Amino acid sequence: MSMLDFEISRSERPTPAAEREAVLADPGWGQHFTDHMVTIRYAAGKGWYDARLEPYGPIPMDPASQVFHYSQELFEGLKAYRQADGTIVTFRPYANAARMNRSARRMAMPEIPEQLFVDALELLVGTDREWVPTTDGYSLYLRPFMFATTRALGVNQPADEYMFVVIASPSGNYYARGIRPVSVWLSRDYTRAAPGGTGEAKTGGNYAASFAGQAQAVRNGCDQVVWLDAVEHRWVEEVGSMNLFFVYGAGDRPRLLTPALTGTLLPGITRDSMLKLAPDLGLPVEEGKISVDEWQAGCASGEITEVFGCGTAAVISPVGQVKGPDREWSIGDGEPGEISMRLREELIGIQYGARPDPYGWVHKIV
Ligand SMILES: *Cc1c(COP(=O)(O)O)cnc(C)c1O
């Protein structure tokens, strides 16, 4: 355990086993929460203190807390998996800790020691281990987040008091009815992130700013929105809240391209894992640039055979249809692509322990 001792107060009314089992049989996504949460406080000059494991429940907040007014908030997302032998693991939790600290620097928030972050996850998952589903493809989604609690409306400086919290939510298969390719909308009216902004930080404000674009995608009959660069509105950056990969599958030497991290993309840990796994499967990957025109032309010529989004929640989500105000085209034949599915199987195999873990990504909890 870390430099901080956690004060443990267990729930006196944990969810009865039968009720928990009913939830785990059909957990959906992000609607049910486990019996406990972790909270840790921070004050400038004092550092992190008051680490607790406590029953899941409301957090009393002063209405003048800075997060409500100026959105000083950030979050992370990762999963705990139950492997075949009963071992519970998380996937690359130190990468999430490091990313949270990069987000914290951008948002003028305090960094948290990586080990304290991982200890908090371990304590919560260890305590609520019965909430880690046993069903194939299900997991316990972990949501660490941090926000400013300073009671002040002064706008000229970051807060000096913060709270770090971890909650956990059992999650089913993102694709309850089998994987099907999604349709995506090329947003011309909205951008997600601009140079010098907060696009590479995992902060709630980026999501708040994206909902109008997502709603527009849905109004246009699409599942997700494609975010283009804010300057030229030409370069493809992300889809929804996922990073994108393009498969150049024609010929006998398939290869992948993913948009480079320019500062306006969120550096996904799934993306990073793909960059390492794909070459091991004989698929070279380039981090580069692709414009909407190149995407459309590549599909028309048959050079681009598959496109997928990737992130912790959905793992890999094939893209089948692209629509914009002035164009529309499809990718592949409406079925998930072979290379996308091979990469998905490989990553899931490592997470659930069905495949070797050559990079030591899997972190054993209990
Ligand atoms: C979290 C997130 C991703 C995916 O990151 P993972 O670490 O792979 O889950 C991609 N894009 C955005 C905007 C995100 O917030």
Automatic annotation (TrEMBL):
Pfam families reported in the protein's UniProt record: Aminotran_4
Pathway given in the UniProt record: Amino-acid biosynthesis; L-isoleucine biosynthesis; L-isoleucine from 2-oxobutanoate: step 4/4; Amino-acid biosynthesis; L-leucine biosynthesis; L-leucine from 3-methyl-2-oxobutanoate: step 4/4; Amino-acid biosynthesis; L-valine biosynthesis; L-valine from pyruvate: step 4/4
Enzyme class at the top of the EC tree: transferase
Signal peptide residues on this chain, from the entry's feature table: none
MF term (GO), any: transaminase activity
InterPro entries: Aminotrans_IV, Aminotrans_IV_CS, Aminotransferase-like, B_amino_transII, BCAT-like_C, BCAT-like_N, BCAT_family
Statement: the UniProt record of this protein carries the keyword Amino-acid biosynthesis: yes
Record's catalysed reaction(s): L-isoleucine + 2-oxoglutarate = (S)-3-methyl-2-oxopentanoate + L-glutamate; L-leucine + 2-oxoglutarate = 4-methyl-2-oxopentanoate + L-glutamate; L-valine + 2-oxoglutarate = 3-methyl-2-oxobutanoate + L-glutamate
Keyword Amino-acid biosynthesis (UniProt): yes
Keywords, comma-separated and alphabetical: Amino-acid biosynthesis, Aminotransferase, Branched-chain amino acid biosynthesis, Pyridoxal phosphate, Transferase
Entry cofactors: pyridoxal 5'-phosphate
Enzyme Commission code: 2.6.1.42
Family per record: Belongs to the class-IV pyridoxal-phosphate-dependent aminotransferase family.
UniProt-recorded name of the protein: Branched-chain-amino-acid aminotransferase
Species in which this protein is naturally found: Actinomadura vinacea
